[in-house]
Amino acid sequence: MRYTVLLDFDPEYGSYAVTVPALPGCVTQGPTIDESLARAKEAIEGFVVALAKLGEAVPVEEPLLIPLVVEVEVESPVSPLAATG
């Protein structure tokens, strides 16, 4: 099974929060990307086993989205902070 995981660095705690979009509620965290990914694997395994023991269907991720990063430069006369008011 393959699942997409999302990592979000939290500078306040100095760690990475990990979520698994196909498995709502399956979350973990770690101090480094590598540790976070290792913990994500453990969390996913535990989550899937728990669903199976409860007789619940185990979601299978269907890769419908292709995440890409696009960098843009925008010149604006209004500062981003002023625009949020």
Task: Provide key terms for this protein.
about 80 residues; alpha+beta; Double Stranded RNA Binding Domain; 3-stranded antiparallel β-sheet; about 30% helix
Summarize the structure.
The chain has 85 residues and is of the alpha+beta class. The chain is built from two helices and three strands.
Describe this structure in words.
31% of the residues lie in helices and 16% in strands. The protein has 85 residues and is α+β, with helices and mostly antiparallel strands. It has a 3-stranded antiparallel sheet, covered by helices on one side. A hairpin with a 7-residue loop joins strand 2 and strand 3 (27-30). The chain is elongated, with a radius of gyration of 18 Å.
Determine and state the CATH class.
Answer: Alpha Beta
Structural domain tally = 1
Strand content: 15-25%
- What order do the strands of the largest sheet run in, or round the barrel if closed? 1-2-3
Give the topology.
Elements: E1 6-10, E2 15-19, E3 27-30, H1 33-53, H2 80-84
Antiparallel strand pairs: 1-2, 2-3
